[in-house]
Amino acid sequence: MRQNENGLSVIFAANCRKTVCDAQQGTCFGELALQTLAVLSNGWKVSKDAPNHGEIVQLPLFGTDEAAIQDAAQDLADLVTSFQPRPTIEESVEET
């Protein structure tokens, strides 16, 4: 998380292609898949704030306990079930 954020932004489902980002993001470095139940089993909550967007909350906040932040980052990384690198939309347009 970045400073002044209360949760880690997540998209619930995306069907992204090189030229279309379903998540409506201008920059995409890749897609990580996490199972919501696995996130919840770690004691975090998922708060939905839009039809296809939410936040993982109750993570250690920016500028707090550095060890807790590193532990949470590793725990989240361990939950990743798949990774798909994606070019940014700008890079995709340059390729066409």
What characteristics describe this protein?
96 residues; alpha+beta; three-stranded antiparallel beta sheet; two-stranded antiparallel sheet; 3 helices; globular
Describe the secondary structure blueprint for this structure.
Layout: E1 7-11, E2 30-34, H1 36-41, E3 45-50, E4 53-57, H2 66-79, E5 80-85, H3 89-95
Antiparallel strand pairs: 1-4, 2-5, 3-4
| Number of E-type strands | 5
Quaternary organisation: single chain
User: Quick one: biggest sheet?
Assistant: 3 strands, antiparallel
What coarse outline follows from CA principal-axis ratios? Answer: globular
Order of helices and strands: EEHEEHEH
Please report the number of helical segments.
3
Q: Mean pLDDT, as a whole number?
A: 78
Low-confidence stretches: none
Q: What fraction, in percent, of the residue positions are helical? A: 25-40%
- The percentage of residues in β strands lies in 25-35%
End-to-end C-alpha gap: 33 Å
Main sheet: strand order: 1-4-3
Count the domains: 1
Structural class: alpha+beta
Radius of gyration, in Å, reads: 15 Å
